[in-house]
């Protein structure tokens, strides 16, 4: 009965398998960032005082604001999938566009943040950087690598959601078949989770 | 007939998402406030605890783990468990080095 229904509408389709595949990919992302978090924890343990001093350079207000932006973008992403499942194409597209805009505003904030540090002379290879204690140097090296890699994921995520928006407009993604949108959503939420850990570990240790 | 069986009910309602979002924002506020208080060694523990609660909400609600088959939850739990195990193995090693 069931297989008959499926074959009548879709020749080969396995939404559960697709989502499981996406989760398996997310596990590899977990390893990628996990390794960096391990590095962070060991160096923070070995250079506790330096990390506390170095973290004073970061702006908690911008960091909190960016956290709120990313959490809100996760909300709009999740809601766009609900909208799609309820056959509300227009609402789903609007929510996807809002998600993309929030992702871009996160990146703009991040850009200004990085520029502030760079204007303060804190970047790998600068004289100020090289004259720091090794603990503070490690803090900023980890900060640049981890927030940089995270920002790269935000860029990839916004591009992915942009492609999904195009698919939605072109009816490749429909209320009956939206597993692609779900996969993009899973990626976006993972990026959110990584930020949930990055934020307190870099901004809130003063 | 109607839908592909894996799509049935495969999204939460809007209201639960808004609730989770508000909870996430409140927890962000809490973690910022707690960081301002000097709790010594507990500061990092509090930060990690709050981050874990936030992640749990994102995983179960936003990422639909609550709606998925049990196998998904088992897979994710095992993945997280092994991250935690390797963290503890590595960290216990380094804390002995540090005490030397």
Task: Sum up the structure in keywords.
heterodimer, A: 206 residues, mainly alpha, Four Helix Bundle (Hemerythrin (Met), subunit A), 8 helices, 83% helix, B: 100 residues, 2 domains, flat, disordered N terminus
Can you describe this structure?
The complex is a heterodimer of chains A (206) and B (100). By secondary structure, chain A is mostly helical. Chain A has one domain: Up-down Bundle (Four Helix Bundle (Hemerythrin (Met), subunit A)), CATH 1.20.120.80. Chain A has helices at 2-9, 15-46, 48-55, 60-85, 89-119, 127-130, 134-169, 179-203. Chain A is elongated and about 65 Å long. Chain A starts with a helix and ends with a helix. By secondary structure, chain B is an all-alpha fold. Chain B folds into 2 domains: 1-68; 70-100. Chain B has helices at residues 14-36, 42-62, 70-99. In chain B, helix 1 packs antiparallel against helix 2. The termini of chain B are far apart. Residues 1-7 of chain B have low confidence and may be disordered. Chains A and B meet through helix 1, helix 2, helix 4 and helix 8 of A and helix 1, helix 2 and helix 3 of B.
Question: In a nutshell, what does this entry contain?
Answer:
The complex is a heterodimer of chains A (206) and B (100). With 206 residues, chain A is mainly alpha-helical.
Strands of chain B, count:
0
* Count of alpha/pi helices of chain A: 8
Strand content of chain A: under 5%
Q: Which parts of chain B are unreliable, with pLDDT below 50 for 5 consecutive residues or more?
A: 1-7
CATH topology (level 3) name of chain A: Four Helix Bundle (Hemerythrin (Met), subunit A)
Task: Set out the fold topology.
The complex is a heterodimer of chains A (206) and B (100).
Chain A: H1 2-9, H2 15-46, H3 48-55, H4 60-85, H5 89-119, H6 127-130, H7 134-169, H8 179-203
Chain B: H1 14-36, H2 42-62, H3 70-99
Helix pairs in contact in B: 1-2
